[in-house]
Every structure is written in C-alpha cells, then in structure tokens.
C-alpha cells in the first residue's frame, strides 16, 4: 500500500487561531467510490457532498514540485477542491483564522466556504487538481492582494456610498442554498401546493408559536381573506390606523366593509389606542393593529379599548416577522395575523407571497377554502372563492431563509443601536421610540426630521446615501379615497408623512456603512 493510500495520509484540519464555536473554514468530505473490474468510479454529488450548485469547473496541473499558486480571495464564491493525482496543501484564511488541509486521495474533497483567502502549495510533481465552483467567473468577486483581502475581511474598506437596500447582497450569501431549494422543487414536479408549502406552513407556524399557518398569494390577500372568513362585509366597520401602507385599508374595502381610520402615536406611528376606544361603535367587527416598522402595537391597550366586546383582532404583521410583545411573538397576539413575504421584508421571498397565522383551526380551514376557489375538494365549490396561493418555489425559498431570520433580526438590532448611539444628541432629529414591552425587529429605521426632511434626503443622496419614506402620503389623502376623508382629519399621520425618513438598515449593511450614514446625517444638522 502506497503512502497516498494509507489512512495516515489524510491530514487533519489545523487552526492556527480560532474562535470557540466558529464553523470550519474548510470541510473534508469522503466521496463515494465504486471499485469495478475495469477501474474505480468516484462520485461527488451536490446535495450529499459539495453543498452548493456547481456552475464552473477547472483543473490545475503541471505545477513545479514544491511550488505554490492560486493565492487569492473570494467574496462570495464557494469552492470544492479534489486532488485526482499526487498531493497538494490547501490553506484557508478568514477572520484571523487559518486552517490547512493536505489532499492526497481522489476519494476526499475539501469544501471551502465563501469569503475566504485560499492558497495552494506543496504541489507534488504529478499533481492534478480539479476545482468545482459555485458560480461562473466574476472578476468582481476576486481579491488579488492579501492586504486588500484583510481590509475587506475586517470591514476596513473605505465607504463612499450606502444603498438603502441591495437585495443582491443576500443573494450572494444565500444564493447556493436558495438555488438548491428551487432545484428540489423543480425536480419534485409539485408546482402548486405540495410538500414544500406544507413544510413551510408548519415551520412558520411553529416559529410564531401558533397552531396554524395558511400560505397565500400576498399580504393583502391574507388581510382580506381573513376578514371575509369571519363574515365581515357590507354594513360592518373595521378600525385601521391612518398611518400605514394602503393595503391595510384596501383589505377592508375589498370585503365591502367600511374602514374607520384612527390617528396614531406621534413618536412611534403606531395605532393610538385611546383613539381606538373612541372609534368603536356597535358596527365595529374587527380592528387591525399594524406592527409598524417591526415594532409591536400596544396589544394590552387594544384589549382594554375593546373591553370584552365581540370584536376580532387581525394583526397586520407584514413588517414584524419575529418581533415580540411582552415576550410573545407577533402573530399570536390577536385572533389571527397577516404576514407579507414581499422580497424586502425581514423574511422575504423572491417574489410575492403572504400567509395567515392563527390558533383557530376552523378559521384556517375557511381561509384555505376561500383561497382555493372556495373548494375543499376538487370541482366542488362551496363558496364563491378566489385563487390565492403561496407557490412551492417561494415556500422552499422562505423555508431556507427561516432558519436565518433570528440572526438577521439580531443584526438589525445591532445596527439600530449603532444609530441610536451615533445620533442621540442631534438636535432637530427625532429617533424612533421603543416601548419597554417591545422587542422590535427594525424592518425600517424611520427618523423624523420636521421641516427639513426633504432637504436631509437630498443632502444624503448627494453623498451616496440611499433613503426611503414610509409613507409620504397618509391613507386618507390617497387619490383613491378622494372625498372620503378631509385633509387635517388625522393631523399626526399627516405630520409623520411630512417628516419621516427611513435610513439604511439591513442585515447586510456593515458597521462602517452605518457609521458613514451617521457621519453624513450629523454633517447635515451641523451645517
């Protein structure tokens, strides 16, 4: 038996420096080998061995014995190294750690995670190396200089612009997982409903600590179908906040009920529960508290306003995936909760998607029936329903993302704290209020700049900082509601529409990017 065939020739992974609990930078995997009379067949499968889709393959050969080559970094590319002949040493570095592997058997592969510096050395004279890569060649993903890599790895690259949101960043970090999930759906042949949708429904219900979840086409459908399932319709009133995305009110219109707007709190933008209490009448059938920007509404205050009356509570949790109110997740604080999985949400699909969460199995069944053309069994339509489905591709993507949601939300909280620390003393700028009972998830970091909002937005844009406004026109002043409400009827909502500005805050933003925004905001108010 030659040295290359002995188990001892399989070298171990050595960390020059490591953080406790940190994942391996390089993972050794044993490939499937099938001895045959006419040779040996070696198999490397994407799902079983490699862990990412392969879009490029190349080989390295004829490197002089003992030489090195390939020293460079990749920002997002993942790679799998196989030594088909001879031997080679692979060194992988990231975040101040280095791990080294010696490859000398074709039945073993080294899988390298994204964001690493890699160096191949100690080639044997006859070595042949195959490299499988997760993406096509992209020069922008390469880092050629080790000093440049260290700056990138440490987050020390100079910041000259900060996008409000760049969804491509998330795709770079999760692209391989999402591609594998979508491939699984394509191979399954289940393109409507099926196991992927059922799995996500069960997993998201469990995440929310709820008993039921029904996947739907979008967040608006989740709101309107829930109202319809409760029998809310013409002659009924539904109370909604005046400061929200228009879909909250549109859902009420869709079922033929009357939307009753109430003004909001000036420091949070959340529904003012004192005004809710005053708006309740004998016709009130439901109230829709909006967990705006990822901050829970005051549900105890809402319960006090309802005071035991038979009024349904439908949470609009479109921006509150994972948020908590007094320790309980949004989604189980009322009779049901509507979620949106629009791509920009904390848990976003690759297109439209929505869902309804509830502890009531009978409500879930009615919602599911209405959303399936009013049918529980094929070609038997019990009610005049509609078509609203979460498709399996989006369900698979959302299920892959769900396990990352808490980590993303924690990162959002870290960045929000960075804003608070950096902007707390800026006169003329009001930061978001956080109630003591809330654990927000910072879908939006909306500051208030009364009288200078537009000038601040223009100033930041000139310096490369993207911003947004949530929302520039309150519900009652939307053109579709012309004549229904009057200007000045909801003064707090109108004041917020004229002063709010959303600053960049996404899990993919770096500390230095947020610091750059802080510097630019401070410069505006200092001037």
Structure, explained:
The structure is a single chain. This protein has 527 residues and is of the alpha+beta class. Helix content is 30%, strand content 23%. Strands 14-22-21-18-17-15-16 form a seven-stranded mixed sheet, with helices on both faces. A six-stranded antiparallel sheet has the order 1-9-8-11-6-13. The chain has a five-stranded antiparallel sheet with strand order 2-10-7-12-5, with no helix packed on it. Strand 8 (88-94) and strand 9 form a beta hairpin.
Strand and helix map with partners:
Layout: E1 14-15, E2 26-30, E3 32-36, E4 39-43, H1 46-50, E5 56-61, E6 69-74, E7 79-85, E8 88-94, E9 97-103, E10 108-112, E11 117-121, E12 128-133, E13 142-143, H2 146-153, H3 167-188, H4 195-207, E14 212-216, H5 219-229, E15 237-241, H6 247-254, E16 258-262, H7 273-279, E17 284-287, H8 299-306, E18 312-316, E19 324-325, E20 328-329, E21 336-340, E22 354-358, H9 361-371, E23 375-377, E24 380-381, H10 392-402, H11 405-423, E25 438-439, E26 445-448, H12 453-462, H13 491-499, E27 500-503, H14 511-526
Parallel strand pairs: 15-16, 15-17, 17-18, 18-21
Antiparallel strand pairs: 1-9, 2-10, 3-4, 5-12, 6-11, 6-13, 7-10, 7-12, 8-9, 8-11, 14-22, 19-20, 19-25, 21-22, 23-24, 26-27
Helix pairs in contact: 3-10, 4-10, 5-6, 5-9, 7-8, 11-14
């Amino acid at each position: 038996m030659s040295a290359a065939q002995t188990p001892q020739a399989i070298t171990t992974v050595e960390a020059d420096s490591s953080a406790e609990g940190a994942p391996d930078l390089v993972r050794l995997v044993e490939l499937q080998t099938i001895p045959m009379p006419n040779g040996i067949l070696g198999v490397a499968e994407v799902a079983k061995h490699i862990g990412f889709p392969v879009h490029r393959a190349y080989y390295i050969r004829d490197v002089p014995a003992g030489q090195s080559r390939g020293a460079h970094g990749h920002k997002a590319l993942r790679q799998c190294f196989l030594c088909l002949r001879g031997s080679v040493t692979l060194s992988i570095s990231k975040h101040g750690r280095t791990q080294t592997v010696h490859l000398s058997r074709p039945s073993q592969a080294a899988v390298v995670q994204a964001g690493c510096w890699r160096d191949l050395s100690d080639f044997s004279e006859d070595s042949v190396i195959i490299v499988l890569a997760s993406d096509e060649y992209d020069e922008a993903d390469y880092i050629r200089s080790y000093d440049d890599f260290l700056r990138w790895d440490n987050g020390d690259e100079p910041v000259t612009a900060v996008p409000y949101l760049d969804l491509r960043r998330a795709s770079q970090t999760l692209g391989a997982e999402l591609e594998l999930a979508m491939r699984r759906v394509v191979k399954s042949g289940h393109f409507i409903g099926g196991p992927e949708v059922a799995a996500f429904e069960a997993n998201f219900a469990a995440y929310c600590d709820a008993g039921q979840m029904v996947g739907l086409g979008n967040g608006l459908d989740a709101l309107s179908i829930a109202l319809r399932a409760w029998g809310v319709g013409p002659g009924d009133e539904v109370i909604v906040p005046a400061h929200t995305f228009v879909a909250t009110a549109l859902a009420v219109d869709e079922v033929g009920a009357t939307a009753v707007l109430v003004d909001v709190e000036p420091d949070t933008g959340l529904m003012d529960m004192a005004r809710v209490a005053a708006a309740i009448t004998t016709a009130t059938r439901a109230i829709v508290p909006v967990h705006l920007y990822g901050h829970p509404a005051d549900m105890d205050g809402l319960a006090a306003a309802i005071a035991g009356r038979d009024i349904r509570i439908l949470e609009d949790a479109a921006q509150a995936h994972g948020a908590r109110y007094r320790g309980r997740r949004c989604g189980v604080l009322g009779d049901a909760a509507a979620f949106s999985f629009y791509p920009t949400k904390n848990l976003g699909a690759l297109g439209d998607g929505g869902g309804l969460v509830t502890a009531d199995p009978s409500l879930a069944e009615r919602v599911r029936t209405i959303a399936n053309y009013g049918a529980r069994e094929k070609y038997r339509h019990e009610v005049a329903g509609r078509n609203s489905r979460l498709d399996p591709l989006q369900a698979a993507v959302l299920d892959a993302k769900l396990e990352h949601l808490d980590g993303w939300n924690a990162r959002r909280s870290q960045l929000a704290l960075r804003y608070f620390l950096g902007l707390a003393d800026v006169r003329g700028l009001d930061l978001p209020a956080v109630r003591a009972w809330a654990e927000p998830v910072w879908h939006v970091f909306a500051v208030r700049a009364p009288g200078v909002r537009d000038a601040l937005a223009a100033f930041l844009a000139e310096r490369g900082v993207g911003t947004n406004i949530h929302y520039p026109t309150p519900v009652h002043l939307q053109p579709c509601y012309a004549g229904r409400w009057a200007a000045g009827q909801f003064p707090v909502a109108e004041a917020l529409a004229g002063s709010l500005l959303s600053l960049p805050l996404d899990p993919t933003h770096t500390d230095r990017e947020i610091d750059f925004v802080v510097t630019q905001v401070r410069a505006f108010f200092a001037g």
